[in-house]
Every structure is written in structure tokens, then in C-alpha cells.
Design brief:
The protein is of the alpha+beta class. The longest helix is centred in the C-terminal third of the chain and has 41 residues. Helix 16 packs across helix 17. The protein is built from 31 helices and 30 strands. The strands form eight sheets. It has a four-stranded antiparallel sheet with strand order 1-28-27-26. Strands 2-3-4-5 form a four-stranded antiparallel sheet, with helices on one face. The relative contact order is 0.03. About 40% of the residues lie in helices and about 20% in strands.
Length: about 850
């Protein structure tokens, strides 16, 4: 149908109204092809007058009275010589086994396609229409209707004779008839009628709107959408009628069914045919010769539109103008539209041409997208519907898309699509790489090259790396970082980078990249050397990752130069690989670095670097005095004499005071605080810390002639020294700042001490009473005595075997139990008895004699 499409579509794009020009970018809904093969031969000698469509075949009637049965491709399967004049209509039943034919000379034939038995009759007037009962094949439905001046129903009775009934007459020529289930719809000069064959009632009359049009020139088009919906097209008017069941309460003398017109609207052109398409309508139009805005050469081209019906109007979905053969000579009555209910196939019949319209499939959709250069959408559509496409290949569409992007200069987009389109096809990948090289766009495709399981030849990757090395050092470095080292010949790239470094030996980008290449090649010592020279942040990661500690023993100073903190942390974390002695040896000439290292070592463990504590005293004094005093306090290994010497040389008073006190020379230390620091608060704190009466005496003696010192002492010594001692020694008449406040504070402190003592006493008394009560409650509790208890003296069971006789048991608060007879006599003090076991533990050896003496004395006293 290339010719029909070219002839039909291009004019439709050039000679349509403004709305069609605006919608030219919208995809058409239908595609067209000309029915050829046998049809071409037939129409060269004859002209088509009518056609009917079955799911399995086509039946074509001609102006010379012949009927041809055709397959779907248009090949002739059977030929019938019916008449010498025009065939007006052909009707088929649903099974496609029987056919009804009527012609302009009055002949009517109804026969089986496989048996010629049937009805053959010739009338004295032209028969315009014929329609078989849809179930004509079944014996009880042998019915058909014919129409000329009147509508006749033929029905074969049980005697195998045909009975005729006039269904309607008197309203002019019947121009169309359509039979669906039990409903027959026909059109005459007045309007459209519907007859219910089951109830033998005519149920409606839909009047013709435009009575000025000649019915023979602008015939009515009828089409059943389903068993109850009839579509009527006449002139420029379309009506959609629904046959409904009448409510039994409203029947009276009315038919059991009625018709409701649910949609009625006018169109711009004359209607030649109608067909349903889901919930839409396919309409064939004959364009008016005097229509406005139509070019003279194409004014009579038929149009096939898809419309959406609304209650009082319609919405155009698509519109195609068709250039059928000899369209300039055709009238509205020369066109017909037939459709196949099994498939969405629409046949446009004209005297010299038959065009088939089909719904566009996914392949057609992709064709249109490619034609409009919408490659992205075409590729997406192919991927989504890959199971349904037959004529297209996803890879070919993708390649077309890539070619288009390259032609338009979108090299980045083309390279990005390569990753998706080329997939795992190495040959296509290499071809694309060479094409990008030819157009000078290797950089665009570099980041999308496969680098996982699928890999191209190493030469491909090396070619791209060399290209970057010539023009873009940063891009080259990025590829080296991103690409696995196995993709290319590492030695070849190292040599290329080395050659470039000869021209620019200080280029940090090239040096860093060379270090990475050495790392891939496991030449870590060379990589480390470069990283250290560049002070690169990855140097520590490289050392850790590849365990290069043996390589850095002589590079510790370089590491410290780069980052002291990171270097020291790394060295301390790996003492087993680089010893403390080795580090100290390397840093001997860099005392500041040595101090940083030893200081962090001391913070981690006070004992690991103990042999260097003496050296650290001088390092702290030189580089970090704030941490000297904490070091002296925490270290137990530094020589105090050496430390004191250094501190005295540098006049470090606080550190000297600490060392003197630690060495036992507290009086000298206190003297330094008072004389050199002149800080009474520190002196008092020092005296409190030492808690030595002699130091307090020295402090008071030194302060007695210094009023500020006296004030400080009065404010602070109340809890350590009796303030009276100080007050008595103050010279009479000496002016002391804030003396009154100091004395008030002393009294307040004294009162506070008294209150604290009384409070503590009350708490002790309350606690004692509480505990005594608790002990009393505990001792007053009952004690369980059972068979498991034994006498602590005779070790027999505490309870006798015969509990009916009287027995006595003594239980002490300590939970020891005795038979009464097993206890010694309580003596002369009645009621006084002790647990032998607990008493022996408390008294110890030989205490029994003393107790006897006490008891003897007690007895004498009682006597």
C-alpha cells in the first residue's frame, strides 16, 4: 500500500484544514493499504458496486453483475455470474455459508456457497437491498428480507415453500437494510424504521433530517454497533439509537421495545459509511464540492475520520484524506464503508479502488516515531513491547538513534546510549570506538566503555589513554583512577607518563597518576616516594593498605614534615613494626618532632618510653612548658634532681615548687611560693595539701607583718588551724584590710562546724535507735524447728521420735539449738543461760575458768 499511503497521506498533509495542520505532529490512528491481487484485475475491466465482509473472506459485487469471493489478500476464490447489470447488495449470514444477492434488474438469489439450493426470483422492479437472517444456516431461521419499493420478508415454511410478508411499503425506495439478531433496520425516503421479528412489531421511526438531499444520491448509512445500538448516518447528520425494553406497566398497546436517541450531531461533510471502533466511530466522508478552504484538485477526496461521539456533538480524534483511484469522478453514493467485526479492519469501497484501513500496531507506531526522528521514544516503545514487534529490532533502532545523535553533534548523548544499546557485543563496541576516534570524540565515549565482566581489547583502552595524555592531564588521571589496572598494559602507560614528565617534571597531576600506576603494578616503594615528595594525602592510606612500614623507617622525618599528627598516630599504632627506639633515633636531629612523638607516647602509656623521660624534661621545657608540670606529676621515672636543675635554670617557679615538695623540702617550696610568687592563696593551698603544723607556723610567721597575707590566712585557715593563734600574734594597731569581714567569716565557719557536729550527732542517734529497733524485731521473730535440726551438743535430732511425750528444747537468738538436758546447769543465777558455741568463740581459750570465777562471785553475792 505504499502507493495508497503516499497518494493518500501527502495530499492530506498539504490540503487539510488548519486544525489538521496544527495536529500534523500527532500520530495517525490507522494505516492503509490497497487491496490488490485479483481485485486489481477485476477493477481494471469492471467497477465495484458493493461488498460485504466476513471474518474468513470477502464478497465483491460489480457493475457488470458478477459476484467474486475473495480471500483477505484479495485473491479470487470463486466467481458467480448473477446478472448483466449492477449488483446492489450482497448479504452473508454469520457462518458465511449462505449468501443473498440482489441486482438492479430485479434478480434476487439466496443460496448456499457449498450447495446451490436456495431461493431464485426475478422481480419486475430493481431490488436495492437484501439481508439474510444472521442465523440463516439453522433450519428454523430460514428468513431473509428484500427491499425495492417495499420491504418483503421471506420465510420458508415446513413444506419447504417460501412465504412472503410485506413489512413496509408506501414511503419510497428502500436504500439500506441491516439485520441484527431479531431486529431489522431499514431506510427509505422518509426515515429509518426498526422492526422486531420476534414480536412482529415495528418499534420506531427515525425521521430524515435534511429532506432536500436526494436519497438516491446521498443514501443512508446504517450500522449495528451491538445487539441494541444502531448508528444512523444520513447526509451530514449522525444519530446513535439504543433499543430498550419498555416497562411492562407502560405497554398498553405500545411495542414491548422503544428507541432512545442518545447522541445526535451534525458533521461537516456527507456521510458515506459508518463503523464502530471500540467506543468511537469510524466515518467515511464525501467532501462537498463547494466546501470552503478546499483546493480545487483535491476537493472530492474521501476522508476517513475517527470521532468520539458526545450527546450533541463529536470530537475528532484523527482524520485522513484518501486519494483513491478516479476519486474526481465519484459521487457520495459510489463510496461504501464495510468492516470486519472480528478484527479492526475497515474497507473503503469505490468503483475503481478498494482500500483497507487497519489499526496501527506497535511496529507502525515505531515506524512513525522513527520517521519523526523520535528515536528515544521509539527505543523505549520497542523495549517495552519487544514480544509484540515483528518488523523491528531493538539493537537496530538503538544504532539508528546513536547515528542520529552523532549527526546532530550530540556526542555525549550518543556515547551514553552506546552503553545501553551495544550491550555485550564487543564487535559493535570496537566499531563505535573507532568511529568516535575518526570524528575526534574519544573523550566522549571513554567514560561509558565496558570495564566489568565484558572487556574490550587492551589496545582500545590504551588508545583512549594516549589520547587523553596528549590533551587532558586531569581527564587522564580520572580514567586511571576509575579504570581497573587490568584493562590496559600498565607498563606501556607508565612509560608514556614518564616520557611526558621529562618535558614537565614538576607536574603534580602526572606525578600523582604515575604513583597510582606504580601502585597498580605493586611497585609501592616508588609510589611512596612520589607521594611523600608531593605531600599527598593518600600516603598514609598507601602505607597501611600495603604494609609499607619497612619502607618508611628512613622517611619518618618526611612523614612528620607532611603531617605530624597523622604520622605520630600511625607510628604509635604500629609499634610492633617500627620500634620506639628506631623512631627516636630517626628524630634525634629534630627535637621538636621528637617531643611530639614522645609526648603522645607518654599520653598513651606512662611507662613505655620511661627511659626517655629524662630527655623529655628538656623537650617539655623547650617546646611545651604548659605540659611540663603534668608530666612531672604523672611520671614516676624522671630523675627529680635533673628536673629540678632544669627548672631552676629556667626559673620555672611552679615546677620547682612541685619538685621541692616531692623531694621533701616543703619549707623551701613554701618559701619560694611566698617570696617569688607572693601568692598567699597558693601558699595556703600548699600548706593544706601538706597538712604540716610546722608549715603553718612558717606561713604565719612570714605573713604576720604583711596585712594582705593576714587577710588571706584569716579567710582560709579556720578549718585547719585555730584562728586564735593567728589573731594573738597580730601586732596592735596594724591596719588589716577587710578584717571585720574576715572575723565574721571565722565566726560563721565556727558556727557552721558546731551545727554540723550537732546534725551529725542527731543523725547518729536516730540511726542507732532505728538499728536497735530493727535488731529487736529480728530477734523477736519465731524460729522454725523441724526434723532437720540437730542438737549442737549431742548432735542428735532436736525433735524426739515420739512427740507425744514431753520434751524441752532451748533455742538461742544465734539459731543454735540444744536439748535442755544437754545444756550445763545455769548455776545460781536463775534464767541466765548462754550458747556454748557462740560464748566459746567470743571468750577464746581459757575464758571458761574466768566465767566460773564470775559465777562463783555472783553466787556468793546472792548468798
Amino acid at each position: 500500500m505504499a502507493e495508497a499511503e503516499e497518494q493518500g497521506r501527502k495530499p492530506s498533509e498539504e490540503f487539510t484544514d488548519e486544525s489538521e495542520e496544527e495536529d500534523s505532529e500527532e500520530e495517525p490512528k490507522l494505516k492503509y493499504e490497497r487491496l490488490s491481487n485479483g481485485v486489481t484485475e477485476i477493477l481494471q475491466k469492471d467497477a465495484a458496486s458493493c461488498m460485504t465482509v466476513h471474518d474468513k473472506f470477502l464478497a465483491l459485487g460489480t457493475h457488470f453483475g458478477k459476484v467474486f469471493l475473495l480471500d483477505i489478500q484479495g485473491n479470487i476464490t470463486q466467481k458467480f455470474e448473477i446478472s448483466s447489470v449492477k449488483i446492489n447488495q450482497i448479504s452473508l449470514d454469520e457462518s458465511g455459508e449462505h449468501v443473498g444477492i440482489c441486482s438492479e434488474d430485479g434478480k434476487v438469489q439466496v443460496f448456499g456457497l457449498y450447495t446451490r439450493e436456495g431461493f431464485h426470483e426475478t422481480f419486475d422492479c430493481p431490488v436495492k437491498v437484501v439481508a439474510l437472517h444472521p442465523q440463516f444456516t439453522r433450519s428454523n431461521y430460514k428468513q431473509f428480507v428484500t427491499g425495492g419499493n417495499k420491504l418483503l420478508l421471506y420465510e420458508r415454511n415446513w413444506l419447504n415453500r417460501w412465504k412472503t410478508v410485506v413489512l413496509h411499503e408506501g414511503e419510497g425506495t428502500i436504500t439500506n437494510v441491516q439485520w441484527r439478531t431479531n431486529l431489522i433496520a431499514w431506510a427509505n425516503n422518509v426515515g429509518v424504521k426498526i422492526y422486531d421479528i420476534s414480536t412482529k412489531q415495528r418499534i420506531t421511526n427515525v425521521l430524515r433530517d435534511n429532506v432536500s438531499l436526494r436519497p438516491d444520491m446521498y443514501p443512508c448509512s446504517l450500522c449495528w454497533k451491538d445487539d441494541s445500538t444502531l448508528i444512523v448516518g444520513w447526509g451530514t447528520s449522525i444519530k446513535i439509537c439504543i433499543v430498550k425494553e419498555r416497562n411492562p406497566t407502560e405497554m398498553r398497546d405500545l411495542p414491548s421495545r422503544y428507541v432512545e436517541i442518545v447522541s445526535a450531531f451534525e458533521t461537516e461533510f456527507f456521510i458515506c459509511g459508518l463503523a464502530p471502533l471500540a467506543d468511537q466511530l469510524v466515518t467515511l466522508y464525501f467532501v462537498k464540492e463547494n466546501a470552503e478552504n478546499m483546493d480545487e484538485d483535491f476537493r472530492a477526496r474521501p476522508r476517513l475520520d475517527i470521532i468520539q461521539s458526545l450527546p450533541e456533538s463529536c470530537e475528532e480524534i484523527s482524520s485522513d484524506a484518501l486519494t483513491v483511484r478516479n476519486f474526481q469522478d465519484n459521487e457520495c453514493r459510489d463510496y461504501r464503508l464495510e468492516h470486519s467485526e472480528g478484527e479492526s479492519l475497515f474497507y473503503i469501497i469505490s468503483p475503481k479502488d478498494i482500500v483497507v484501513a487497519k489499526e496501527r500496531d506497535q511496529d507502525d507506531h515505531i515506524d512513525w516515531l522513527l520517521e519523526k526522528k523520535k528515536y528515544e521514544e521509539a527505543l523505549m516503545a520497542a523495549e517495552i513491547s519487544f514480544k509484540n514487534i515483528k518488523r523491528h529490532d531493538i539493537k537496530k533502532i538503538g544504532m539508528s538513534y546513536i547515528n542520529h545523535l552523532v549527526k546532530t553533534g550530540d556526542y555525549e548523548g550518543a556515547a551514553r546510549k552506546c552503553q545501553k544499546v551495544l550491550g555485550k557485543n564487543m564487535e559493535l563496541w570496537e566499531n563505535e570506538v573507532y568511529r568516535f576516534k575518526t570524528i575526534g570524540q574519544l573523550k566522549a565515549i571513554s567514560q561509558y566503555l565496558p570495564r566489568g565482566d565484558l572487556r574490550l581489547r587492551p589496545a582500545i583502552y590504551e588508545m583512549i589513554l594516549h589520547e587523553f595524555l596528549k590533551t587532558d592531564y586531569e581527564g587522564f588521571a580520572t580514567l586511571i583512577r576509575e579504570w581497573p589496572g587490568e584493562l590496559y598494559n600498565n607498563m606501556a602507560i607508565v612509560q608514556a607518563v614518564t616520557d611526558h614528565l621529562k618535558k614537565d617534571p614538576t607536574n603534580s597531576t602526572l606525578l600523582t597518576t604515575l604513583a597510582e600506576l606504580y601502585t597498580y603494578d605493586q611497585r609501592y616503594d616508588k609510589a611512596l616516594e612520589i607521594y611523600l615528595r608531593l605531600r599527598h594525602k593518600d600516603v598514609y592510606q598507601l602505607i597501611h593498605k600495603h604494609n609499607l612500614f619497612s619502607s618508611i623507617e628512613d622517611k619518618i622525618v618526611l612523614l612528620m614534615d607532611f603531617d605530624k599528627e597523622k604520622a605520630v598516630d600511625m607510628l604509635l599504632d604500629n609499634e610492633d613494626k617500627i620500634s620506639i627506639d628506631r623512631v627516636v633515633e630517626e628524630l634525634a636531629d629534630k627535637p621538636e618532632y621528637l617531643h611530639v612523638y614522645l609526648h603522645k607516647l607518654f599520653k598513651r602509656d606512662h611507662h613505655k618510653g620511661q627511659k626517655y623521660h629524662e630527655r623529655q624534661i628538656g623537650l617539655y621545657a623547650e617546646y611545651d612548658r604548659p605540659n611540663l608540670l603534668p608530666f612531672l606529676r604523672d611520671s614516676t621515672h624522671c630523675p627529680l634532681e635533673k628536673a629540678l636543675e632544669i627548672c631552676q635554670q629556667r626559673n620555672f617557679v611552679e615546677e620547682t615548687v612541685f619538685l621541692l615538695s616531692r623531694m621533701g623540702n616543703c619549707r623551701r617550696a613554701l618559701q619560694m611560693i611566698m617570696e617569688e610568687l607572693a601568692n598567699v592563696d597558693k601558699a595556703i593551698d600548699f600548706a593544706k595539701e601538706q597538712d604540716d603544723a610546722e608549715l603553718w607556723e612558717d606561713l604565719i610567721s612570714y605573713s604576720i607583718d604583711k596585712p594582705p597575707f593576714i587577710t588571706g590566712l584569716l579567710n582560709n585557715i579556720g578549718t585547719h588551724v585555730d584562728p586564735i593563734l593567728l589573731i594573738h600574734r597580730i601586732k596592735e594597731g596594724m591596719e588589716i584590710p577587710n578584717l571585720r569581714d574576715s572575723l565574721v567569716k571565722i565566726l560563721q565557719d565556727y558556727n557552721l562546724q558546731i551545727l554540723l557536729r550537732e546534725g551529725c550527732k542527731k543523725i547518729l542517734v536516730a540511726d542507732s535507735l532505728s538499728l536497735l529497733q530493727k535488731m529487736h524485731r529480728t530477734q523477736m521473730r519465731g524460729v522454725r524447728v523441724d526434723d532437720e535440726n540437730i542438737c549442737e551438743s549431742c548432735h542428735a535430732t532436736i525433735l524426739p521420735s515420739d512427740i507425744t511425750r514431753n520434751f524441752s528444747v532451748v533455742v538461742f537468738h544465734c539459731r543454735h539449738m540444744f536439748h535442755k538436758e544437754c545444756l550445763p546447769s545455769p548455776g545460781t543465777i536463775p534464767g541466765v543461760q548462754f550458747c556454748n558455741i557462740c560464748s566459746a568463740k567470743k571468750r577464746g581459750p581459757g575464758s571458761g575458768i574466768l566465767d566460773m570465777k564470775k559465777l562463783s562471785l555472783a553466787n556468793q553475792h546472792i548468798a
